[in-house]
Each structure stands twice: as structure tokens, then as C-alpha cells.
Design a protein that fits this description.
The protein is α+β, with helices and mostly antiparallel strands. The chain is built from 4 helices and 6 strands, in the order H-E-E-E-E-H-E-E-H-H. Helix 1 (about 1-30) runs antiparallel to helix 3 (about 110-145) and helix 1 packs parallel to helix 4.
Length: about 190
């Protein structure tokens, strides 16, 4: 019976990982508001090494449409500015010799639609992860059944795994719906 509980727990943990990954990825999709997470994947050339921008500067929001980047070393202003331009995020950094200021342009209707498609694609990826966790859980239950687990207990476990799957797919839909609403709000 402990094996059955272990399968349930492993399946749930795998599904929770899919949800947390989705949340992280959705934060990177910009919705017209300034968010330091937007620059998370920008890699800066730091004395010959490529490091995340967060390792070379503090990134904060000044207001809803402005990001402020404060390098820890003044010599890093130009490499950070170049890295942001090279990241092809559609952002135009302005270097004033002390900080880098980025004004986030308002999203066009076309760009909003592209971003909602991106959010939906991320949601589908998360659902695939959840379904894979379900498949692994179901296979583990079937394996236990071959090794002597009663059929009615196996069927109960499969039902519970399916209920878990439905719950997590619902969470994915809510996250994506919320992000779409955020993107489409002007």
C-alpha cells in the first residue's frame, strides 16, 4: 500500500513542477508593464564570461512602464546596454552614464495577439508535462497490479490520478486565462 501512496505523491510532485514552470515562463511574457523578470534571460559579457544580467546589476521598476538597471560597476554600463540590444526583446536601453533606463513601449494589438498565442503555447507545454506525469503514474499502478495489487485498488488509484490530472489541467487553464486577460488589458 505504501507503493501506491508513493506513486500518488510522485505524480503530484511532477504535476506541481509543471505548474511552477508554467508560472515562471508566463512571468517572462510581457504584458505592457515593466517587470524585472523580462530581462532574466539576458546574458552579459562580464570579463570574458557570459552571466545573467542579475549578476552584474540590480534591475528594478521605476514605474509601470520603466525599468531601471543599476550596474554594480560603472564599467559594465556599455556591456549591459549591448546585451539588452542583442537579446532582441524590442527594448531600447538609454544609458545616462550612471544607470540604464528602459521605457517599455505600449503593446500594439497585433503584438498582444502574438503574446496570447505564446501564453497558450506555454499552457499546452505545461499540459503535456502533466499528461506525462499521469502516464508515468498509470504505468506504475499497472506494474504494481501485475505484481499482485488487487484490481479494484488499482482502478481506484487510476481514478485518483485522473482526478489529479483534471485538477492540474484546470490550474493551467486558469493561469493562461489570467495571463491573456493581463495581456489584452490596455
Amino acid at each position: 500500500m505504501n507503493d501506491v501512496i508513493e506513486i500518488q505523491n510522485q505524480t503530484k510532485v511532477a504535476m506541481e513542477k509543471a505548474i511552477s514552470h508554467l508560472e515562471t515562463e508566463l512571468q517572462k511574457v510581457r504584458a505592457g508593464k515593466a517587470n524585472p523578470v523580462m530581462l532574466e534571460n539576458v546574458m552579459v559579457d562580464y570579463y570574458g564570461s557570459r552571466v545573467p544580467i542579475s549578476n552584474t546589476a540590480s534591475v528594478n521598476t521605476q514605474d509601470a512602464r520603466t525599468l531601471i538597471i543599476q550596474p554594480w560597476e560603472k564599467s559594465m554600463l556599455t556591456p549591459i546596454e549591448k546585451a539588452i540590444q542583442m537579446a532582441n526583446l524590442g527594448l531600447n536601453p538609454q544609458n545616462d552614464g550612471v544607470i540604464i533606463r528602459i521605457s517599455i513601449p505600449p503593446l500594439t494589438e497585433e503584438r498582444r495577439k502574438e503574446l496570447t498565442k505564446t501564453a497558450r503555447a506555454l499552457g499546452e507545454d505545461a499540459k503535456v508535462g502533466i499528461r506525462n506525469a499521469r502516464k508515468e503514474g498509470m504505468e506504475a499502478v499497472k506494474k504494481l497490479q501485475k505484481n499482485g495489487l488487487p484490481e479494484d485498488v488499482a482502478k481506484d488509484q487510476e481514478q485518483q490520478i485522473q482526478q489529479l490530472t483534471d485538477t492540474f489541467v484546470g490550474k493551467v487553464d486558469k493561469h493562461v486565462e489570467q495571463k491573456e486577460k493581463e495581456i489584452l488589458t490596455v
